[in-house]
Each structure stands twice: as structure tokens, then as C-alpha cells.
Amino acid sequence: MGNKKVVITVYGAEQICASCVGAPGSKDTYEWLQAAIGRKYADGDLNYHYINIDQPQTEEKHATMVERIFEEDLFYPIVFVNDELVAEGIPRLKTIYQALDNHKVPLLS
Predict the structure, then answer these.
(1) pLDDT of 1 higher than 50
(2) Where are the transmembrane segments (predicted)?
């Protein structure tokens, strides 16, 4: 994969999405994803970011996505691998792993 980092971004809020009752919170999902991905992939090529949608955003890219979440009533957490939306609501590891494979993130040896 070289020196190019893959960025995993999770957008969420402290309050659980109204349509996701019974699901873990966004921050819990963020931490769970780091642990699950770290058991399968070499994490030297990965960067993780958590974006709280209830906080003001200084980066335009994140501000635009937060606005979209509210305008389109998207379910959160929302998971991106680089610029690809791979999960909305309750994430599925299989889908996220497929995106990491597509970006040629090396598996643990």
C-alpha cells in the first residue's frame, strides 16, 4: 500500500439516533471499529477520525457532511473509508472490510 494512509471517519453524536434505539452509541461504535479492524488489518496505514455532529466543524468537508446528515435525516453513526460512505446506522464489518480490501490495506501477518 505504500505511504498512502486510509482514513476511517465516523460521524455521530452522543445521543443515540432516534431510529437506532437499542444500538450502541456513535462513540462506542467508533471504538469498536478500531478494535475490530485492528484485529484483522495492519493499522500502520490507517487513520481514524471521530466527528461529533453536534459540534461546530472547522473543516468544510465535515461541515458539509454534518449539514447533509441533518437535511437528509441520515442514520448515524455514518462511516466513511476515505471519501466513500460505507455504513449508515448500524455498521456491518463485512462492508467495511471490503472497502479496506479495495484500498489494499494489508492484513496482519
Answers:
(1) no
(2) none
Write down the mean pLDDT value for the chain. 90
Q: Which domains does the chain have, with CATH numbers?
A: 6-102 (3.40.30.30)
Q: Which of 76, 64, 81 is nearest to 16 (CA)?
A: 76
- Average the pLDDT over 84-108 and give the result: 94
Quote the pTM value: 0.90
